[in-house]
Amino acid sequence: MVIRVHMTCDKCRSKAMGLVASIYGVERVEIQGDDRDRLAVVGDGVDAANLTACLRKKVGNADLLTVEAVVPEKKPAPASETTEAPWYPGYYSWPAGAYSHCYPYTYTM
Length: 109
Fold this sequence. Notes:
This protein is α+β, with helices and mostly antiparallel strands. It has a domain at about 1-65: Alpha-Beta Plaits, CATH 3.30.70. The protein has helices spanning about 10-20, 50-60; strands spanning about 1-5, 25-30, 40-45, 60-65. It has a 4-stranded antiparallel beta sheet with strand order 2-3-1-4, covered by helices on one side. The longest helix is centred in the N-terminal third of the chain and has 12 residues, at about 10-20.
């Protein structure tokens, strides 16, 4: 979501970013725009109207510009997957020799 907030100085920007970052569910906050007056907020389960009202109360005039869902990028599947031998507790595992009689499996290399 993008919120336009009336921020005139760096102290106001810092206060607005700290307020937004403290909200539960917010993952990332960025300052955008030519006048550095827009906050881009990314998060899960964030109430946009409540966040805007809170910014109005604490910082100044705030307008909700856009709200949209962010779709995660799909990662390509790896070309070849390697398989490793399963690990079994035995003689070669810790503790080395003192408790080897406790483990019924033996790992041969």
